[in-house]
C-alpha cells in the first residue's frame, strides 16, 4: 500500500537521528563565559577566570568553524588571562 508521500527512507532526521535538544545551549554557555571573564577582571578573578574557561571549553562545538565562535574564544582567552593575573597577584 502506498504511503502517500510520507517517505522517511532518505531522510534520517525524520527518524529521530538529530542531536538531542536537552542540556545547555552552546551559545548561552559562551555568552555566560564571556561575562564571567569580563567580570573576573574586576572581582574574584581567581574564581571567575577558571569558570570562564570552563564555560568556553564546554561551548566549543566539534567543528570549531561556526560563526558563534567569537564569544567562545573571548571566554577562553580572557578566562586564561584572568586566572594568570589572579595567580600572579596572589604570589
How is this structure best described in words?
With 91 residues, this protein is an all-alpha fold. The protein is 57% helix and 0% strand. The chain contains three helices and no strands. Helix 1 (26-40) packs parallel to helix 3 (69-90). The longest helix has 22 residues, at 69-90. The chain is elongated, with a radius of gyration of 20 Å. The protein starts with 25 loop residues before the first helix and ends with a helix.
Strand proportion, as a percent range, falls in under 5%
Mean pLDDT, nearest integer? 79
Question: Could you say which overall geometry the principal axes of the C-alpha atoms support?
Answer: elongated
Count the beta strands.
Answer: 0
Per DSSP, the total helix count is 3
> What structural class do you assign from the helix and strand content?
mainly alpha
Largest sheet: none
Global Rg: 20 Å
Order of helix and strand elements from N to C terminus: HHH
**What is the terminal-to-terminal distance?**
77 Å
Bin the helical content.
55-70%
Low-confidence stretches: none
What are the SSEs and their pairings?
Layout: H1 26-40, H2 45-59, H3 69-90
Helix pairs in contact: 1-2, 1-3, 2-3
Describe this structure in a few short sentences.
This protein has 91 residues and is mostly helical. It contains three helices and no strands. The chain starts with 25 loop residues before the first helix and ends with a helix.
